[in-house]
Amino acid sequence: EAQVTQNPRYLITVTGKKLTVTCSQNMNHEYMSWYRQDPGLGLRQIYYSMNVEVTDKGDVPEGYKVSRKEKRNFPLILESPSPNQTSLYFCASSFAGPSYEQYFGPGTRLTVT
Amino acid sequence: AQTVTQSQPEMSVQEAETVTLSCTYDTSESDYYLFWYKQPPSRQMILVIRQEAYKQQNATENRFSVNFQKAAKSFSLKISDSQLGDAAMYFCAYRSKVKTSYDKVIFGPGTSLSVIP
Question: Reduced to 3 states, what is the DSSP secondary structure of residue A27?
Fold first, then answer.
């Protein structure tokens, strides 16, 4: 089954404790992206990647890191989480090109206390 | 920079009736894609419909259709014969066709649609 998987689905952590949210897709997509969803703000792009070893900042990259060492994986790293990073996070992937539908993972609900 | 606005935070519709969700956007580009995504309570994001700016014909997918007004920069979604399963958050999204820009996707704030039995 074609899908984007994210882990964990739920995470409660404390300020400053490094964490990684994994994202993996099995559709051989070149493009992958991370979003955060906050009430009233919709989805905002954090980072995206057009291919292996190619990443770039979205609209809200502060406090996040990403890497793309393999085509299928695109982990999101919070090296020192803060309460303002409490949010719902989505990973998405698609073939390269603007017409292609993005396929989204199930979301990760992160709470930083 | 492009922006996407959805002016209706919440809407409701009676089952079997028709509802229209509004979306406006701002861009200086002439060619781009617009999308409507649905997010039911399960949180899964699902593509509803897409429209290419250069195509004058409005896109249609079963009960879902759009009214694309390029000059007005308006992209509304019409849901006909509303069903209980249509209850969800709906997001409008913009994606550039410019090769150096299409990696960025701009979403609106969303409209929460309730369907009344």
Answer: coil
Residue-wise pLDDT for B31-83, tens only, equals 889 999 999 999 999 999 999 998 888 999 999 999 999 999 999 999 999 99
Render pLDDT for A6-55 as a digit per residue (tens, 0 to 9). Answer: 999 999 999 999 999 999 999 999 999 999 999 989 999 999 998 899 89
Put simply, whether A107 touches B (Cβ < 8 Å) is yes
B109/A42 touch (CB, cutoff 8 Å), yes or no: yes
pLDDT digits (tens, 9 = 90+) for B70-103: 999 999 999 999 999 999 999 999 988 776 655 7
Which member of B44, B45, B102 has the closest CB to residue A98? B102
Sign of CA dihedral B33, B5, B101, A81: negative
Task: Return the residue of B nearest to A109 by Cα.
Answer: B43
Contact A41 B109 (CB under 8 A): yes
Give the span between the Cα atoms of B53 and B32, in whole angstroms: 5
CB nearest to B104's CB, from A40, A45, A104? A45
Beta strand A19-25 with B10-14 is: unpaired
DSSP string across B29-88:
-S-EEEEEEEE-TT---EEEEEEETT--SPPEETTEEEEEETTTTEEEEEE-S--GGG-E
Neighbours of A35 (CB within 10 A): 27
Identify which of B33, B91, B110 has the shortest CB distance to residue A98.
B33
- Beta bridge partners, B33, equal B52, B95
